[in-house]
Amino acid sequence: MRLISANVNGIRAAARRGGLAWLVDQHADVIALQEVRASDDQLRTTLADHGLGDWHVTHAPGRAKGHAGVAVLTRQPPSRTSSDIGPVEFTDAGRWVEVDVQGPHGPVTVVSTYVHTGEARTPKQDEKLRFLDAVGARLSALAESGGYAVLTGDLNVCHSADDLKNWKGNVGKAGFLPEEQAHLDRWAADHGYVDVHRRLHGPGPGPYTWWSWRGKAFDNDAGWRIDYQIASGPLAELATRAEVGRAAAYDQRWSDHAPLTVDYELTLA
């Protein structure tokens, strides 16, 4: 199973820049998208116009036009879909969608999530932490089944200094706060989830998955690793390869994020 997670920073903009052509060429089995920023009709039309029209699309658009939106694309029809993460305040926020696809030993749950940036010591940050609480509760429920599950997406959290080039300059700022990082620690310690990208790559620094459009951040590789595939223990054991699809040059970028591809030794039905 080749699973690609990509924050497209607007599906139509990514398509114009060649992002969907890149995705087609990767021969994925499942594609998780974040920051789709489109209606359901706009998403499906864009996919159809760029070689992905025959995929099954599960989409949770954001309630505010032009904001958020997550989707999962599968080659086979999903056996279950949901965009309910629990708390009512996140209903229709376009930040969570999960699908079940059939594997040889039961369903594989793939989640695409987009956690907003937040802002330290503000209500925005309080909301971000509440959302991370909800993510943890849902991951706990999925872990209880003992099956295969993977959380993909843009968490807007750097787990350690290895995940952020300028970590000293970001101490105390959203995205690098201990209370954010503690969530990822608990998912691992309490529920057995594994950051498969970090496990397969080994220690950092990097590889990063996000760079500002501004200045020389991309050219200097002054990035953040905020895009993840975090798998349940049984699925993590099947992960064999992880790769960040960093563009060869600034003018070849199709998003401010780079896609994260992970191969799992698992054949979907």
TrEMBL record:
The record marks 257 as: Interaction with DNA substrate. CDD domains: Nape_like_AP-endo. InterPro entries: AP_endonuc_1, Endo/exonu/phosph_ase_sf, Endo/exonuclease/phosphatase, ExoIII-like. Probably binds two magnesium or manganese ions per subunit. The record marks 156 as: Transition state stabilizer. Belongs to the DNA repair enzymes AP/ExoA family. Mg(2+) binds at residues 7, 35, 154, 156, 256-257. One of its GO terms (biological process) is DNA repair. Its cofactor is Mg(2+); Mn(2+). Keywords: Hydrolase, Magnesium, Manganese, Metal-binding. The record marks 227 as: Important for catalytic activity. This is Exodeoxyribonuclease-3. Residues 5-257 form the Endonuclease/exonuclease/phosphatase domain. GO terms for molecular function: double-stranded DNA 3'-5' DNA exonuclease activity; metal ion binding. It holds the Pfam family Exo_endo_phos. The active site is at 114, 154 (proton donor/acceptor), 257 (proton acceptor).
